[in-house]
Design goal:
By secondary structure, the chain is mainly alpha-helical. Helices cover about 55% and strands about 5% of the residues.
Length: about 325
């Protein structure tokens, strides 16, 4: 894969420091102590995952300027106009200095950069503009949305208004919520990988088997994020993000091995299903994750069947409402 001349996050910071920040200081000095600037939200560039494929849409100089509600009402329109003028003028610099063409905005990418009201930014991603107050409120927020709301980088935030919400989210789930979500993941790993995959293959339901395997992979990835106290991103980036994990980053490589097994269907058709290499990988992944659950003092069972870990996690939850929820329910 061809490498990018410059990653989106780096380009965004250059654009801000070289062009947008001086413009704001000159034309809107009253805002400089209250605004925040950076790049966060939807898009591979906000994770640092953008590559040459990413340049076909929404790639190019762009930065988020987050304003308080009061400042946005008073200055939002004029600052947005000034921002657009600055971006257009800086396109030549980007092309000549960094070999980066003008930003092409897709229909889905509109409104991701430019002048944004702080509360509206969070509400647009999370469906709320305040920190969750209860375990149920935390449980109801999809992890991929929490991930999008807290990714990227904040270049400046002197007043700290934008970062107060961001830091509160990054403090992570209350422990009972984390345990409930881990219990769901462990149960889905058992159901999808250790139970249903083999049964579907044995019956010749090969598409159902692939779906079962997909559920296992998704649940295993999600559990690794939870063990690292990180929010799991949109499914497209779940596996990629495992490389950045402090704990169990090797799970990404182990799961990748599933794509190398090409004779599973043949094995089951010839009565050699137990020799299916995918079964060995599934069990290895479960064993490694079970060991980490032990290491973090979350479970004690010696069983490598992940449902046993799910039940133990559920029983350790102090919040009676969460503890009494169905083992597969996490919202």
């Amino acid at each position: 894969m061809e490498r990018l001349t410059m990653k989106g996050l780096e380009l965004s910071e250059c654009f801000y420091m070289e062009a947008v920040k001086p413009m704001l200081a000159q034309r809107f000095p009253a805002l400089c102590d209250t605004l925040a600037a950076g790049l966060a939200g939807h898009g591979s560039e906000c994770y640092g995952y953008d590559d040459a494929c990413s340049t076909d849409h929404d790639y190019g100089a762009g930065v988020c300027i987050w304003l308080t509600e009061t400042d946005f009402e008073r200055y939002g329109t004029v600052v947005q106009t000034a921002y657009e003028e600055t971006a257009a003028a800086w396109e030549r610099t980007a092309l000549e200095r960094y070999k980066i063409p003008a930003r092409r905005i897709s229909a889905q990418g509109a409104g991701r950069v430019g002048v944004l009201e702080i509360g509206a930014f969070y509400y647009g991603i999370l469906g709320t503009d305040r920190l969750p107050q209860t375990n149920r409120e935390w449980l109801a927020l999809p992890p991929e949305r929490l991930s999008a709301a807290t990714n990227g980088r904040v270049f400046e935030d002197h007043a700290g208004v934008f970062s107060t919400m961001r830091d509160g989210l990054l403090a992570y789930y209350p422990e009972d919520v984390r345990k409930k979500k881990m219990a769901v993941c462990a149960a889905l790993m058992a159901q999808g990988g250790q139970y249903n995959y083999a049964r579907c293959m044995k019956r010749g339901e090969y598409l159902a088997a692939e779906l079962s395997l997909s559920e296992f992979v998704r649940a295993a990835c999600s559990l690794v994020y939870l063990l690292n106290r990180k929010f799991c991103p949109f499914y497209k980036w779940m596996h990629r993000g495992l490389k950045d994990m402090t704990v169990l980053s090797e799970i990404g490589d182990m799961l990748m091995l599933l794509t190398d097994v090409t004779d599973s269907k043949q094995k089951w058709q010839t009565g050699q299903g137990q020799a299916d290499g995918r079964l060995l990988i599934i069990e290895a992944v479960c064993q490694v994750i079970a060991q980490e659950l032990h290491a973090q003092g979350l479970t004690t069972t010696g069983d490598t069947y992940m449902e046993a870990h799910a039940k133990e996690l559920l029983l350790s939850i102090e919040d009676e409402e969460l503890r009494s929820m169905h083992i597969l329910r996490d919202s």
